[in-house]
Structure formats: structure tokens, C-alpha cells
């Protein structure tokens, strides 16, 4: 978002935006986020050129709230998730679901893991922890190496159980809805399909997961 500002028509510098993003808009107090990350609702925004950085952050936060229905909030609560926790799970689903129609199934896997205290083992959390890769010139290093999976960070869900401390991306409505209404399943594992389609294959046991390995 910061990188797009110089060509946005707004008089807001990337530095000013990044600084403002560290303090959540007051309208998000009900969700108790530590920063705005995760709550920048992905959308098209039409704003006056004189919009200030605080007004920009507030407008995006209000748009997030406008899409978070009371039914969705109740669905999160029924799964013993706070809104912040639900957004964290949705942020992982957002990064995992190459095809967004898979989001409810992917959400189910992560919620199933959380329910039994199993580590999430989510690649996107490691990618987030690693940060910008100057060689690949991407924030989302792919593929990850075995050493990458050992990178010591509280965001690395291969090392630390439970949720990372904050969202790792800004989930859209499909991912947010998927966490509210996951596809019921007995799956605890999934991996990329071998056909390169971007879809996934799912498994209830580790043995099934291994059997789904690509030749």
C-alpha cells in the first residue's frame, strides 16, 4: 500500500503511511488489534486528493467494519475466536487459497488443528517472518527451504503452537467469511495438488498426507 501512494494522487508519503499504520483506528477498538495490519480491507477506494493519512487509515478501517456483519461476528464467537483471532486465521487462509473457492476448506483444516492444539505449520507465516527476499524480489519467498522453516520468529507456526501474534496479510471478504463458515471436515492436512493447478488435496491423517505426495 505504501509503495502505491506516490502514484495514487494523494499527498501522503509512504513513510507517513507506514507510521500511521502502526496505530489502529479507534473505530477498531472492539477488535483490539495492535496495528492496522490485517484490517486494511482490500477494496477500491475513491478519496479526495486532500485526504490526510489519518483520514485514509480511518476510511479503510470503517470499510472493514462495514463488511464484518453481526452474523459473522457471532459465528466467530461460536468457534471461541475473538475477532482478532479470526482475522489472523483469515489472513493465513488469504495467502494459502490460490483459488479463493477453496478458502472454506482451508479454513476448516486450520481450525481443526487449532481445536486439538496441533501446530498450524502454515508456510505463509514463515514467509511473513522472513520478510522481503531481495533475490526473488518478493515478500513471499517460494519455495521455502528446510532452513527457512527453522527461522526463529514468533510468527513461525512450524516452531510455535497456536496463532501468530498478529495477522500476516489483509484478508478479503472471502477469507473472512470462510473462517466464519468453514467447510465441515475431518481434515488436518493439505498440500498443493501435483498438477500445478494451484488447488490442494486434503487428508485426515499424516499417512494419507504422505500418500498424496507428488511422484
Architecture overview:
This protein has 215 residues and is mostly helical. It contains 9 helices and 2 strands. Helices cover 39% and strands 4% of the residues. The chain has helices at 14-20, 53-67, 70-78, 83-96, 103-115, 123-130, 146-149, 173-180, 206-211, and strands at 189-192, 200-203. Strand 1 (189-192) and strand 2 form a beta hairpin. The chain has a two-stranded antiparallel sheet with strand order 1-2. The termini are far apart. It is globular.
What would you call the shape? globular
Number of strands: 2
Flag low-confidence runs. Answer: none
How far apart lie the N and C ends?
A: 40 Å
Task: Offer a quick outline of the entry.
This protein has 215 residues and is mainly alpha-helical.
Name its key features.
215 residues; mainly alpha; 9 helices; 4% strand; globular
Topology:
Elements: H1 14-20, H2 53-67, H3 70-78, H4 83-96, H5 103-115, H6 123-130, H7 146-149, H8 173-180, E1 189-192, E2 200-203, H9 206-211
Antiparallel strand pairs: 1-2
Helix pairs in contact: 3-8, 4-5, 4-8, 5-8
